[in-house]
Amino acid sequence: MSVSPRSEHAAANVISLSERKEAALRAVWSEYLAARGRAERTRKIEDGVEAGRAHRRWLELFMTHEQRQFLSGGGAGDK
Q1: Quick check: 5 pLDDT over 60?
Q2: What is Dmax (Cα atoms) for the chain?
Q3: Which of 39, 40, 42 has the alpha carbon at shortest distance from 50?
Q4: What domain range is 40 assigned to?
Q5: How far apart are CA 34 and CA 75, in angstroms?
Q6: Contacts by 51-56, CB closer than 8 A, 24 or more apart
Q7: How far apart are CA 79 and CA 33, in angstroms?
Q8: Which residues have CB under 8 Å from 58's CB, separation 6+?
Q9: pTM, two decimal places
Q10: pLDDT digits (tens, 9 = 90+) for 14-57
Q11: pLDDT band (50, 70, 90) for residue 70
């Protein structure tokens, strides 16, 4: 069974998108680990706050639009 060039191109795009997503995940994860490590080393509240923000950015990658909206103050009761 042969695969058409068009479907091969589509498969290449899917892989490309997956690689981009993985690269983005790795970048945000690395930022979080660095911020957390800095906070643990310095014990400064400012570094802890930044680590918390970095953790939030990590979690946001897995949230739905509705979850992000709710956490940003646009919850169900805010119409």
Answers
A1: no
A2: 62
A3: 39
A4: 5-71
A5: 31
A6: 54/28
A7: 37
A8: 28, 29, 32
A9: 0.67
A10: 556 688 889 999 999 999 999 999 999 999 999 999 999 999 99
A11: very high
Residue 77 inside a domain? The answer is no
Q: From CA 73, how far away is CA 33, in angstroms rounded?
A: 27
Domain count within the chain:
1
Q: Is residue 46 part of a domain?
A: yes
pLDDT computed for residue 79 by the predictor: 46
* Domain annotation covers residue 79: no
Distance CA 42, CA 11 (A): 47
Closest CA to 50 of 26, 25, 33: 33
Distance CA 32, CA 48 (A): 11
